[in-house]
Amino acid sequence: MKTISIDLHNMPLTQAQREMMKILKTSPKDTTMIEVIHGCHHGDRILRYIRTELKHPRISKKILGLNNGITILELK
């Protein structure tokens, strides 16, 4: 089981979207979780994107972190 982390907070939304697609496409097959740090105090555009709009065949579940600025993506 392998977890990787990506920090998107303070990025423009379009850059965050590109970074997410890139990491989903290039992460090794043994990666089972991605911890997405998107922040929540300086706007919620990236948070909403990750939690509601982001779709990808590798994502099996989205887990909301205890910290509202983090979402865990469980991968297939």
Descriptive account of the structure:
It is a single chain. The protein has helices at 13-26, 45-53, and strands at 2-7, 31-37, 59-64, 70-75. With 76 residues, the chain is an alpha+beta fold. It is 30% helix and 33% strand.
The H-and-E topology, N to C, reads as EHEHEE
The tally of helices reads: 2
Largest sheet: 4 strands, mixed
Helix content: 25-40%
Spatial ordering of strands, largest sheet: 1-2-4-3
Strand residues, percent:
25-35%
Estimated structural class: alpha+beta
> On the 0-100 scale, what is the average pLDDT?
94
Q: List low-confidence stretches.
A: none
Radius of gyration: 11 Å
Shape: globular
Distance between the termini: 11 Å
Tell me how many strands there are: 4
Map the helices and strands.
Layout: E1 2-7, H1 13-26, E2 31-37, H2 45-53, E3 59-64, E4 70-75
Parallel strand pairs: 1-2
Antiparallel strand pairs: 2-4, 3-4
Short synopsis of the structure:
This protein has 76 residues and is α+β, with helices and mostly antiparallel strands. Helices cover 30% and strands 33% of the residues. The protein is built from two helices and four strands.
Task: Name the features.
76 residues; alpha+beta; four-stranded mixed β-sheet; 33% strand; globular
